[in-house]
Structures are given as C-alpha cells and as structure tokens.
Amino acid sequence: MKKLSALIFGILILGAGLRIAAAGVPMIPDEIKNLLIAQEISFHPNHLNLPIENKFVTQPLLNLYLTKLGMSLFGPNVLAARFFHVLCGCLTLLLIYRLGKEAGDSVGVTAMFLTAVNPYHIHASVRLVNESLLFGLSAASILVFYMALKHARYVYFIWLGVLTALNFYTKSVSLLLPAVFGIYMLLNPVYRRLLGRKELWIGVVLFGGLLIPWGIWVAQYGTSQLVFDAGMYIVSQVRLHTTTLNFYLIEFLSALKGVDHHMRISWEYATMGMINGIVIFSMTLAAIRYVSDGFVRYMFVIFAVFMGVLSFFAKPGLPFGEFWWASLSLIPAVCLTGVMMVRCYQTGKLAMICVMVFLGYALINSVFFVKQLEAQIMTPPHRMATFVDDDFVVARYYEYHHRKDLAVKEMLRLLRIAPNDVEKLSYLGWLYLQMGLEEKADAAWLRALDLEPSYVDPWNRLPQLMPQRLRYYLDGRSEELQGVAKDMRLGMLYFHAGDTTTADSYFLQIHQQSPNSWAVYYLGRSTLRQGEWDLAEQYFQMIIENSPDFYPAYFYLAQCDFKQGRYTAAEANLLALLENNPDDARAYQLLSEVYTEMKMPQRAKSALDIARTIFHDDVKARIYPRIQGDYQKLFEF
Predict the structure, then answer these.
(1) Residue 316, pLDDT score
(2) CA-angle at 56, arms to 52 and 58, nearest 5°
C-alpha cells in the first residue's frame, strides 16, 4: 500500500511539475481576451459585476471566475491568473486515478500517468480557457455517476446534479454528459429501475435549478454560446465529419497527406502528438473486446457518444471542425488505454517491454514538449506568410470598448509575428480610419493590396474610398506627406485604382528626380499589366542591381522569364526571392509551374504542397470567395 501511495504521489508531483513549468508561457489571443473579461468581474458589494455571458466569449464564464479569483488572491499577473487552472489540472490527475481504480489500482495508476504526461492536457491545464476546469468537473461527474449506480446512495445523485450544472457553466458541450448517463441507464436493465428513484430526480431538479440564472439571462439578452449557434445545425452541415478523429490523429492524418498539421489547425494550440494519439486511440478501440466488463462498457459508452455525436457537427468555415470539443473523450480513453496496457503487461515479456517503452517515450516527450512550448505557440510555422490563423479578437474587444489606441497596439503586435498578413493590415487600416488617421489607414491598406492584389478584405475600404482619398492628396490637405512622398502615394493610389497611365507619370517623375526602387517597381508592374515583358524585365533588373535584397522584384522578374520560356532563369530568381522571404506562397506556386514546364513533376508537386501549407486550410472557407486569379489554384485540392 505504501508503495502504491508513493507511486501516486510521484505521478502527481511529475504532473504538477510539468504544468508549473508550462505555466510561464506567453498567452495566446484567446487567453488575453479572457483575461481582459475576467478583470471586468468585480466581487465588491458597491460595484458588483458578475456577468453570466459576454459577447466576446462563445463558452460560459465559470473558468473566468477562477482567473479573477487567482488575481484577487495573488496579484494581477499571469501566473496568479493561471493558479487555479493549474490546480484543477493537477487535481484532475487524482480524479482520473480514482476513476481508473474501479478497474484496479494498476489501471488507475496507468491512466493517471498517461494524463500527467499528455501534451494536450498539460497545455489545457495552463491556458486561461475552460479545458482545465472542464476536465476536472467532467472526471468528477463521470466518477460520481458510476458510484451512484454502484451504491445507489442518495448523496451521489445530489452531487451529480450539482456537478453537471457547474460543468455546463464551464463549457456547454458538457451537456452530452447527462445524455450519456441517461443512455447508459436505458441500455442496462439492472440500472433502469433507478429511473424511478426520487434521489435521481432530486439531482435532475438541482441540475435544472442551477441553470435558472443562465436561462433568465438568455431570455433577456440572448446567448453567445457557440453550441447554440443556429449555423451549427444547418441541414447541409450536419453530416459525418472527421472532427473527433482529428483530436487524436490530426498529426498522423496530416503526415499521410504530406501536409504540415500546424497549417490545418490553429498553430498556437497543442495537439495530442502523433505517437500518443495513435496509441491511445487504437488501445481505446481495442478495449471493446472486454466490453462485457461493467467499467469498460461504461467508459466505452462515454467515448462512443462523444466521438459519434460531435463528428456530425462542424463550425461553418472550419473544415476540420471544433475537434477540441472532443477533448472530454480523453477521460474514458486514458482509462480504457490503462485497462489494455495492464492486460498487455501481464500477457508476456515482449508485450511488457512494449508498454514500458511507450510509457518511457511519453515521459520524455512531455519534457521536450514543455521545453518547446513557448517557441511553438509564439511563432507560426510560416512567420511571414499571409493569412496566418491568429485571431484578432482582442483588438475587436478593445474597439468595442472604445479603446482603439489599444486595438492598434494589439494589431501592431500581431503584425510583428506575421508582417505580411493582409487581413490584419486591412483591419489596422480600418482602426486608423475610425481614429481619424486617414493617411495611416491608406498606408496599411495599400500595403495589403501590394501583398495580395487579387484579394480584398472587407475591412479594406480603400477601393470604395479611392476617389475621396485621391482628392485629399490632390487638394494638398496632407500634412504628413509632401513632395516625393505625396507623389508616391498618389501614384500608388492611381495604380490600384486601375489608372496605370496617370500612375506611371508620377513614378517616372519621382525616378527622374532621384533613383527610387519603389517607383521603378511600380513602373515594372505597370508594364507587366500591358504585356511588355522586355521593358518590365529591365525595370526589375535595375532594382535588383541597386537593391539585391528587394525581394518583391524577384517574383515579377521570374514572371518575365517564365512568360518568355526562360525557365532556368525563372527558377534562379524565385529561389533568390525565397532566401529573403521563405514564406512567399506565390513564389512557390510559380516555382511549381516552372518545374512543370521543366518536366520535373516531383519538384513541381513539392513546391505546390509548400505553397498550399503556407495558407492555413482552416481559413480557406473564409477567404476563398474573395480570392481571384491564380490564387484560386492553391485551394483546388
């Protein structure tokens, strides 16, 4: 017994150590948003503010109360805000052990260890979102329901009503748990008789009663919770997806397709890991052979309901669905994996060695995961790429609260991470426009148009405001831009308005006064529009001779070479471009076409695959309708 207690304590210390080490990583946008909302909560009697919902949060706010409590007790800092989240993550390990113990101490210890070193749960335990509390309350609910069935005691049903209600206030997807409990009772004749017990119905009344405040709030103000979004239930949308499968196998399935999994999901979220995901998922499925065992059957029903039901739903615009919702299936999955590993361990020496090797790998992998976590969530795989999936909800939150200065600061921070993101540049321009900084708005919008001429974001108002902006500069109302700078701005505006002749007159005048790479660059692009490849080539060659690091010129020079059949020269220019800007999707796309003409199909496929991974798959649905020309080819797969 002492040995078992020491082992449990050791795993708890290990799990706590990994989570404490991970607690210092920087916050992602969702966490910053939650922190801002948590700061609005006030427990002071004179200005009590306990919001039940917030329009910027698509899940309930119970986890934010924990965030506020941590800051109230330990000060306004990130570690204090994360204190109760980490604590819940650690306590969940004990709950997993107690749950697995129903199949034996060895199963409980194995399930506890698998959770302690699981990369997804480690990250979920430190983020200022709902997963940490959700895991803890769900594990407690699953355990209490099992104990209620096993002992049929009054107190268990009472606690079950309270826990399931609190779970709903953590994340609305937890509503599946009461459904699981009901299904399990109906499937088992032995437990069906409990449906007539008053204790059960007292628990049901408690569950409903605790949800009354939320119901009153929703009746008055509506709900922002994603699970109640009508878009989730569009008939054409409700079909079988790989949503939940991706929770375990996203890295494996991406590798099979030769795609970086970071480009298929939000890159700042940790995943299960390829080996962990394959082993846990396959072991869970293998446990069905022991489904005659009551505990295994119970765990398998929970796993099957979450995996089955959630696979039919996907948030519009996300081809891989909200597979994070399937995270609760990890609780029965680690228990079932524990059952299988213990049985494998007992079958023979080879199986025992395989189990120990995997557990050793899981431990080492978790240590490396924590050490690399900050780098993973702070830097996108393609730092310079356009359309990096990094939500600017924090900036929208500031805008809504009339703090556009802070919104601008947040957008500038995001653009330091992904400087070529046209959506962020477009939104930054919109913020500047609202602040009356029209010239800064023009600069941001023009930069976005230069980067992606065939894409216009809704926040980019320059096409509609073009006549007004031209008059502004022509009338001499600009105080910031004078002389060459003003002429350059006018030339750029005329160029994007489609008046190439007038634009060229400004660029020629600027270049005649003093050599200017940007003026020559636009002259080259103007001549390209007119199909004058030789003249355009001279312009771009001139830029590169004077400014070898001016990477945009290499792309159009490569275009000139490609159009004239000089494929080797086109390849050289594109490779030179990629040395300066390694995340240029257009360069890889054109390089693919070059290799196709050079009869190098493998290189062509490789270049096109890279081009496609630079554009996140999960932004495809959002941007595709507004993409024109060659860029559409990137999404035809």
Answers:
(1) 59
(2) 70
Is residue 610 predicted with pLDDT exceeding 90?
no
* The dihedral formed by the CA atoms of 626, 627, 632 and 636, expressed in degrees to the nearest 10: -40
Classify the phi-psi angles of 289: left when phi > 0, otherwise alpha if psi is within -120 to 50, otherwise beta: alpha
Unique residue bearing structure tokens 């636009």: 522
- Paired strand residues for 455: 627
Structure tokens at 530: 């007119």
- Do residues 586 and 564 make contact, with C-beta atoms less than 8 angstroms apart? no
Please, how many CA atoms are within 13 Å of residue 84, restricted to the half-sphere of its CB? Answer: 19
- Phi, then psi, of 388 in degrees rounded to 5: -65, 135
Quote the pLDDT of residue 396: 93
Euclidean distance between CA atoms 503 and 482, whole angstroms: 17
Question: Is-contact 93 112, C-beta < 8 A?
Answer: yes
Give the pLDDT of residue 35: 92
Q: Are 123 and 373 in contact (CB under 8 A)?
A: yes
Of residues 379, 382, 406, the one with CA closest to residue 392: 406
d(CA 97, CA 87) in angstroms, rounded, equals 16
Tokens 């690091």 belong to which residue?
Answer: 549
Tell whether the model's pLDDT for residue 618 goes beyond 70: no
Give CA 279 to chain center in angstroms.
24
Counting every residue written for the chain, the total comes to: 637
Lowest mean pLDDT among 27-31, 276-280, 403-407, 431-435: 27-31
Cβ-based neighbours of 350, under 8 Å, separated by 6 or more? none
Tokens 């930069």 correspond to what residue? 447
- Mean pLDDT for all residues in the chain: 89
**Cα 339 to Cα 319: distance, rounded to the nearest angstrom:** 34
Q: With 0-12 CB in 10 A as exposed, 13-18 as middle and 19+ as buried, what is 434?
A: middle
CB-based contacts of 581: which residues, under 8 Å, 6+ apart?
A: 384, 420, 551, 587
322-to-189, 266, 318, 523 alpha-carbon distances in Å: 35, 11, 7, 46
The Cα 322–Cα 315 span in angstroms is 6
For residue 632 the two structure tokens come to 């559409």
- Answer yes or no: is pLDDT of 320 > 70: no
Handedness of CA 404, 410, 411, 412 (dihedral sign): positive
Q: Degrees (nearest 5) of the Cα angle 194, 195, 199?
A: 70
pLDDT value at residue 340: 95
Across 129-149, average pLDDT: 93
Mean pLDDT of 238-246: 80
Neighbours of 532 (CB within 10 A): 15
Residue type, 601: P
Cα separation, 183 vs 186, whole angstroms: 5
Token couple for 503: 């634009």
Judging by beta carbons within 10 Å of its beta carbon (0-12, 13-18, 19+), is residue 475 exposed, middle or buried? exposed
> Which spans in 348-499 are helix H?
349-378, 393-400, 404-417, 422-434, 438-451, 462-474, 484-497
Reading the block at residue 275, the tokens are 């080996």
Q: Could you report the per-residue pLDDT of 189-217, keeping only the tens digit for each? A: 888 887 877 888 888 899 999 999 888 88
